Amino acid sequence: MLGLIWSWAGEIRSTEKNIGVSPNIIAAELGVIAMESDKRHNETGALVIATAAEFHHRAVWVHPFEDGNERWARLLANIWLMQHDQPATLWPATDLRNKESPIRDEYIAAIKAADSRNYGPLIDLHQKFSE
């Protein structure tokens, strides 16, 4: 996905960052959030798109890579949606890369709101850009 941009793309980071979990527990955390997403959906009947938005945020929060975490988390959430027979979210990639874009501002605000467990704005964005 990002191999043409960075030669190290796809390699789990080995350094501490000011965001994300410790590098030595990244793989375990990713497994936990995947299992918890399925469990939440299966046991509570939570809306698939709401669970995908939470999964998306938590994948960003783990921050497994040096860079590209948001793009990867959006792809991961889309895979989860499709595995649950739901349409993918068609994120406007150009707008999300543009630091001056109001859509990027809205996306960053939604990720920050999710940091406080307010997933509403991120769910809204998933719905806004669904197929």
UniProtKB/TrEMBL annotation:
One Pfam assignment: Fic
Xref: PROSITE patterns: FIDO
SUPFAM superfamilies: Fic-like
Top-level taxon: Bacteria
Domain Fido: start-end pairs: 1-128
Protein name: Fic family protein
Native organism taxonomy: Bacteria, Pseudomonadati, Planctomycetota, Planctomycetia, Pirellulales
